Amino acid sequence: MEPTRSVQTRSRGRWLLLLGILLSALTLSGIAASPAVAEDGSAASASDEYEYHFSGNVQYNDEPLEGVKITVEGGGFSADTETDADGKWTIGVPEKTEYTVELDEDTLPDGVVVAKGENPRTAEFGLTNNKSVNFFLGEGTRVTVSFFDQLINRVVNGLNFGLLLALAAIGLSLIYGTTGLSNFAHSEMITFGALMTLTFSSDVGLPIGIAILIAILLSAGLGWGLDAALWKPLRKRGVGVIQLMIVSIGLALAMRYTFQFFYGGQTRQLPGASPAEFHLGPLSLSWVDVASMGISIIVLLGVAWFLLRTRIGKATRAVSDNPSLASASGIDVDGTIRIVWVLGAALAGLSGILWAYYRPGVSWDMGFQILLLVFAAVTLGGLGTAFGALVGSLIVGLFVELSTLWLPADMKFVAALVILILVLLLRPQGILGRRERIG
Amino acid sequence: MSSDAIPTKKPVKSVGLHVGDAVPGCKKTDPILIADGVKRTFGGLTAVDVAHVEVPRGAITALIGPNGAGKTTFFNLLTGFDKPDHGTWSFDGKSLAHVPAFKVARLGLIRTFQLTKALGLLTVMDNMKLGATGQRGENLFRAMLPFLWRKQDDEIEAKALELLGRFKLDAKKDDYAASLSGGQRKLLEMARALMSDPTLVMLDEPMAGVNPALTQSLLDHILDLKTQGMSVLFVEHDMHMVRHIADWVIVMAEGKVVAEGDPYTVMQDQAVIDAYLGQHHDQDLGATDTGHVEALKELIDDEQ
Amino acid sequence: MIDWGAIFSNAAVEVLSPTTAAYALAALGLAVHFGYTGLLNFGQAGFMALGAYGYAISVLTFGFPVWAAVLVAVGASVVFALILGIPTLRLRADYLAIVTIAAAEILRLLFTTNTFRDVTGSANGLSEYKAGFRALNPFSFSGKAGFGPWMFSANDWWNIVVAWTIVALACVLVWVLMRSPWGRVLKGIREDEDAVRSLGKNVYSYKMQSLILGGVFGTFAGMIFILPRAVVPSNYATSLTFFTWAILLLGGAATVLGPVLGSIVFWVALSFFSGFVARAVEAGWLPISEVQSGQLRFILVGVAIMLMVVFRPQGMLGNKKEMSFVK
């Protein structure tokens, strides 16, 4: 029996592998294996993370070329490698889906380029688990994208990413501000929005616009339900904020695997996920990018208006500032917190939909992939300040994208997390936070 | 004397504490704590802006003022729990600027908090033992070898028992501090502060939330501190108590020291009355902290 | 038909497994952090990764002997604790939570990236570092020995003996420390650090010592963890930390034996549960796929964490009154 290997594991949430190996340990039950990870004997499978492989051979005039960089990207996964002394390369990928394989022409010798139209190219697995991708090389001069053009593209991408992070971060920050809870289940609220959109568009067959609206409404409902069924009763019991945080971790774990239980481990695409790109000077964009940024900006302005101008918004900020004082001044604290949960969940759901287009793809752990970035954004801006969360998100978004100019693609999240630690070192209260008063 | 809490025996007041007129910032004959130009702002709000103030040694000094006068912030600044924008202050001749809170405590300046900080899930005895300084067993590596610290720990326990006896908490020594009443926690916090033999004890509202039956005992303990040679600086709202036990009163309003003097004269100072009432001349008095106003009215009645 | 014998004996094996010992030790480290000091370390997986990689890289890349490799791993985790602690231990408790979880992820990404493939083995991880440790094995029988379901090879017994000896020593150490004045200061910090500061204790330094001590426990746990398996970066993801927390909360956060008991109960129950579900699925009793049966156990762990925290915050062994949670 081929045990769990048919699970389509995926991407940066590589920890699914843990699950895979857990399962193989248990289905191969004859072995008295420790359940966490494969024993030595099966180290061969453990030593190779993925079972699907792209491979190829880079040669020019029958001479192997060493040190040529190959990148594989798709389904939210990316990896790169370099050819060895024989010109050979192999990259393991987590699932059978369509990937883009690109050869970095800068790493070829001078005067050698990939044949026109060949690079980058898309590749898919057939019936086997291996697929070879070879590039035809020829003489020619390559058209390089200048550093400046790359920079512009990265900045725009970073803004787009930062704006969608901000949608999630503001909700997280408002919830923290009003209840003191660091909500680790926020990632699952992000995933929920994308999964619902997928269900109502692809599975039910509704137009994407209507599916998105339904998904956001359901997200808001999820926020309402979580507060009504879980958080409000816990507040009434007087459960401390640290306990609440650990409860949210348990909730996140349960929700995430419930998603996987029903939706499986694979990545699926929303309608219109890979649109044509158009060029604006050095900038290449798709209408999805433009729409995503437009929606984010409009919604963020709406949230700002809500917080600054409406009665409920002002009450929210008052509760954030000092719950007991707000309560004493006749503000309905529980009602306000309920609204914050509904709003926060709806924003997280929307953020998840945009994230599904940005990655691109919908999967059960997609929210968890950016949870730490959202936390980093909120912490950078100053815990509990909504506008700080916006600034923090933009910084994180830009940082993640710009870092790929210098860092390998598989390390782009590292930069953002390092920045988080550095900022705490230099300005612990966050960029817009205030120093606290003791006593 | 209207309140039951006021004891019948008259405590001995220290006199001759100051040099020259009793004006804000006046010199003391033997100051233990001197603050100069200490300023702390929160955003645009100035919480504390003290030009000069001296706290006399061997006496009980009360720090009073309306809510928001900056008393607690001033306490935090003096004890290293908060950092001022600028200013210098010294304790026993040693500058305390930029000295962290735990070192301030080791110098012999121990404070308590407005909201009691009894360590709820430690026993009363553990609370007391924590108060002792210079414990060998508090070093990680020596802690692994009990024979290095056992003897000292026993001495500390004996001392703690003696203090607990004095504060009538000895029967509770094995209970969690969380099970004590509010007043007992105040007592515990004070007893714990004494474990380190401090020279200056700073009490932030020692009477707040204490049941009247225990107030007398708390007052006596504060007076005891003086007889044992310690200096006391305390924040209090109850004017009867201030007048009863304080040798000297410092009045703060809006972050500044507005009056100083012995408790009998300072209450009649126009600046003090202004501090409590004046800031709200144009407003409905009902909106102000009526507790203070009542207390002040009572005091004025008492004097007549 | 369901093979109950296999399910029970698989579950029984978990009692002695080095993996159970590793989780127990990692959870004991968290008990020092959280149960006794009130520190929220959500990066225990990072400390474990440093143990595993510190040991394996020292052996493979530098050819160090066992004792030197252990020292390297411990040194690395002390440095890691300092880097985490210096910026965050002066701040509110939840900052430490976010920074530790981020730092552990940074480590995992650094161990996974292709950039350092020569040293870390990238996503494939490392193996072949065990010769030095096995050379120290005093057991020399061939085949399997033991009793009942506990039949292991000589190498397995050596792993088990070393793993549980380290756990026992760590328990004794924590027991002694938490009865000393040092432990008293930690517990005071857990309750109210400002009060402890006002009594002249250098709270920052004590929190740092606690972070380092619990982190070093995590590092040893990481080294025990790789005794029966290879070093694979995906093992050190956030879920490892969450499992360790679940074990800590299950056993009792402010107890010495709670993490050990928690780990045994956790792994025995999980093995039993998944063994049962997997076979029930095979037998067609449950209308779910085998893959889904694996996800059920994660859902179960999540729900268990929530229920424990809300209804029995002191854990199995904790004193009801001494709930270790910061209010």
Main beta-sheet annotation of chain A: 4 strands, antiparallel
Termini distance of chain A?
64 Å
| Topology pattern of chain A, helix = H, strand = E | HHEEEEEEEEEEEHHHHEEHHHHHHH
What's the CATH class of the largest domain in chain A, please? Answer: Mainly Alpha
User: How many extended strands of chain A?
Assistant: 13
In short:
Chain A is 54% helix and 12% strand. Chain A has 13 helices and 13 strands.
Structural key phrases:
heterotrimer, B: 304 residues, alpha/beta, Rossmann fold, six-stranded mixed beta sheet, four-stranded antiparallel beta sheet, 11 helices, 10 strands, globular, disordered N terminus, disordered C terminus, C: 327 residues, mainly alpha, ABC transporter involved in vitamin B12 uptake, BtuC, two-stranded antiparallel sheet, 14 helices, 2 strands, 69% helix
Please give a structural write-up.
The complex is a heterotrimer of chains A (439), B (304) and C (327). Chain A is an alpha+beta fold and 439 residues long. Chain A folds into two domains: 4-139, Sandwich (Immunoglobulin-like), CATH 2.60.40; 148-426, ABC transporter involved in vitamin B12 uptake, BtuC, CATH 1.10.3470. Helix content of chain A is 54%, strand content 12%. Chain A has helices spanning 16-27, 43-46, 147-179, 186-203, 208-237, 241-263, 287-309, 311-321, 323-328, 333-358, 366-381, 386-403, 412-426; strands spanning 52-57, 59-60, 63-64, 69-74, 77-82, 88-93, 99-103, 112-114, 121-123, 130-132, 137-139, 277-280, 283-286. In chain A, the strands form five sheets. Chain A has a four-stranded antiparallel β-sheet, with no helix packed on it. Chain A has a three-stranded mixed β-sheet with strand order 6-1-10, with no helix packed on it. In chain A, strands 2-3 form a two-stranded antiparallel sheet. In chain A, strand 4 and strand 5 form a beta hairpin. By secondary structure, chain B is of the alpha/beta class. Chain B has a domain at 1-115 and 200-206 and 231-304: P-loop containing nucleotide triphosphate hydrolases (Rossmann fold). Helix content of chain B is 35%, strand content 20%. Chain B contains eleven helices and ten strands. Chain B has helices at 71-78, 101-106, 124-131, 140-143, 150-166, 182-194, 212-227, 239-245, 263-266, 270-277, 290-303, and strands spanning 31-42, 45-56, 60-64, 86-91, 94-95, 109-111, 200-204, 231-235, 248-253, 256-261. The radius of gyration of chain B is 20 Å and the shape is globular. Chain C is an all-alpha fold. Chain C has one domain: ABC transporter involved in vitamin B12 uptake, BtuC. Helices cover 69% and strands 2% of the residues of chain C. Chain C has helices at residues 4-16, 18-36, 44-60, 66-88, 93-112, 117-120, 131-135, 154-178, 181-191, 193-198, 203-225, 238-251, 258-282, 290-311, and strands spanning 144-147, 150-153. A two-stranded antiparallel sheet of chain C has the order 1-2. The longest helix of chain C has 25 residues, at 154-178. Chain C is globular, with a radius of gyration of 20 Å. The relative contact order of chain C is 0.19. Classes of the chains: A alpha+beta (439), B alpha/beta (304), C mainly alpha (327). At the A-C interface, helix 1, strand 5, helix 6, helix 11 and helix 13 of A face helix 1, helix 2, helix 4, helix 5 and helix 12 of C.
